[in-house]
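Good morning C.,

I know you're traveling, so I'll keep this short. The sequence:
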Amino acid sequence: MMPELEEVPRLRKALGLTQTALARLSNVSQSTIVKIEKKQMNPSYDVVRRVMTSLQAELKRQEKKALVEQIQTRKVQYIEAKLPLATAVDEMRHWKFSQMPVMHNGHPVGSISDKVINNLILSGKDPKDLVHAEAPVELAASLLRHYNAVLVTAKGDVTGIVTKSDLMKLL
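The tokens, ready to paste straight into the viewer:
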């Protein structure tokens, strides 16, 4: 399914294309691109198809050369493995995150998500008993089975995190 015609200017700009460059890629005139973007014309199906196909091809071309480094969020908010679950939940609420990485001594040991917490509560477990401050890291890691984010490391140090929302930076 192709994007709406109203998306052409946003997509073009996100891809770093000028109107002239998009016109050249689409094999239409630059004035046609201007008129489409200003909603001053109702283009034919063929013109719309060529413009959208060109935008999609450029997106695929740029995705192939995009690096994680370019889209990662550099400031990683995380939960210490030794913290009680209630504190982890408070942190997730504070940051409005649905998941957070769990760290122990500066190294990633897993992640915690609202889905995992909800599943544990629904299974009849008392949230206060799930992760105790003195529980071994292995226990916390075993609870964190579902990963919804990717930590980025360099030389063993966490340098960033990538989530689904970070992928939107490619558009």
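Safe travels,
E.
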